[in-house]
Structures are given as structure tokens and as C-alpha cells.
Amino acid sequence: MKIYDFDNTIYKGDSTADFYLFSLRHHPSIIKNLPSLLVAVIKFYIFKKGTKTEMKEVMYRFLKSIEPEIDIKKFWDTHEKNIKSWYLKQKKDDDIIISASPEFLLRPICDRLNIKNLTASKVDVHTGKYSGVNCHGEEKVRLFNELYGGEIDEFYSDSYSDAPLAKISKKAFMVKGSKIEDW
Fold this sequence. Notes:
Layout: E1 2-4, H1 15-26, H2 34-46, H3 52-59, H4 68-79, H5 85-90, E2 96-102, H6 103-112, E3 117-121, H7 138-147, E4 152-157, H8 163-167, E5 169-176, E6 179-182
Parallel strand pairs: 1-2, 1-4, 2-3, 4-5
Antiparallel strand pairs: 5-6
């Protein structure tokens, strides 16, 4: 069984940030949410108040001002090219993607790539509200054990925040751009 993180691992960049910028270009009115987003980011990252989930819910408020289903399809029409070629060459239908990005954003590209197994943050596509917690760090391990179980033959990520999954894998790899190194 092979497990992959998504952003900056098999996707060049951060898909959530890219989708936000894409949405901003197509719906400039969402800029009105920027002040509250900046406050939430400063509160979380500088003053260490609140949770990452709470901070992200503030960011996702922009979803109320766009047409998510239509915009997500258009986003992947132009951003599917950011799936890294090394991944496409080794992709298997039973791969598992585990990501902190929202499931509503990753499900369409996983469907296009015929990836059936996706575990990601559960965020309402219309309100930006989470059901559960951000799929990050130890939460990825908990969800893996709950949904899949078994042994992880290979794990790929770009971030040491994924060390909990790397620790329970037979072999783990750190991805830096298109360079893949042993963890």
C-alpha cells in the first residue's frame, strides 16, 4: 500500500492557496474577506490562539461568494497540469491520498486521476465549516487506522509534519520539488 500527501508532494504547489487565488481572479469581491483572514492568521500563527481548523474556517468564508462546484471544475481544468510527472508514472489505482486540504477540492482531481482512496479535511463546500478536525499530523494516522488499517509499504510527503505517518511506514520518502529522497 502506498500513501501520498497531496500539496507539494504530488501536486506542484498548495492546491488550497492556488484555488483561493483562482477564485480571487474570477470573483474579485472575495477580497472583502481579507481583513478577517489576516486577523485569523495573526491570531493563530503569532499569538497562538485558537486552532488551525478555526483559522481555516475563516479563510473558507470566500466559498459563500463563489459558485464552488463550477469554479472547482474550472480550477482543475487549468491546474491538473500541476500533478507531478513522477507521480503519474508510478500511480496505481489503489493509491491512498491523505491530505489536510479540503476533500471538496481534491475529490474532483482524484476522480479524474482514477484515485479511489482519498482522505482529506471534511469542509462544507458552501459554508467553509469543518465537520471534524483538520486532517493533519497525528490526525492522518488516526484516520488511516480507522479507514484503511494495514501496513504502509511506502509513504511520500514534503513535510516533517507528516512524521507520524512516516514512522508507521516500511519506507518513507521526502519530496522536494521533483526530487525524492529517503526520509
